[in-house]
Design goal:
Length: about 200
């Protein structure tokens, strides 16, 4: 039973992560979860009125992620060599009346302002391979696209309603988008009050 509940929390570890049309078109964050054999497939996409540098800063702010991602208690970079790093994260989420803890150790590869690739080295949530891509759309707009494949026990995967996993994943990306907007607002305010000269 504990393994089944932990599977519901897979998306909590995909804090950087079928048709996207499943979402309301007015929703800024589109998320889909689908099954393919023994794998769960995740996709997420959103646009944010922020430059790619701001977006990248949030997606790679690993040490401060517990401050803005729901359920994440600890996030630490254990080792870094160039653009390669080892990331450890621990968190807790509530499923009904139960609180379930999770943890993961991941290898992360950074391509600055372009993409973030991650894969599980060890953890309680199964084997996850994910990719986040950034696409600048003008000076102050960025498209964030995420995809991931999760390998899990097929019997468990068949029992878990995908809507629960989808909701967890959606909450993570909504929180990230809000943090990006929060960091943009002070910049907009400074621009508005900057002296024009003359």
């Amino acid at each position: 039973m504990n393994r089944l509940l932990r599977l519901l929390l897979l998306a909590c570890a995909l804090s950087w992560g079928a048709a996207l049309a499943a979402d309301d078109v007015s929703d800024p964050v589109a998320v889909s979860v689908a099954r393919e054999g023994e794998h769960l497939l995740f996709t997420a996409e959103f646009r944010v009125p922020a430059g790619v540098h701001t977006v990248w800063a949030v997606l790679t702010d690993f040490e401060h992620m517990p401050q803005f991602l729901p359920g994440l208690k600890e996030s630490h970079v254990l080792a870094r060599t160039g653009h390669q790093l080892t990331l450890q994260q621990k968190g807790e989420s509530t499923v009904g009346l139960l609180s379930i803890e999770y943890e993961s150790l991941r290898a992360v590869e950074l391509r600055p302002y372009h993409s973030i690739r991650s894969r599980t080295l060890k953890g309680s949530l199964g084997t996850v391979e994910g990719m986040t891509r950034l696409t600048p759309e003008g000076q102050n707009s960025t498209l964030v696209s995420y995809s991931a494949q999760v390998q899990s026990d097929s019997s468990l995967a068949s029992l878990v309603p995908t809507r629960y996993v989808r909701e967890e994943l959606k909450a993570q990306f909504q929180a990230m988008r809000e943090e990006m907007l929060r960091r943009v607002r002070p910049q907009v305010g400074k621009a508005a009050i900057a002296p024009t000269g003359g």
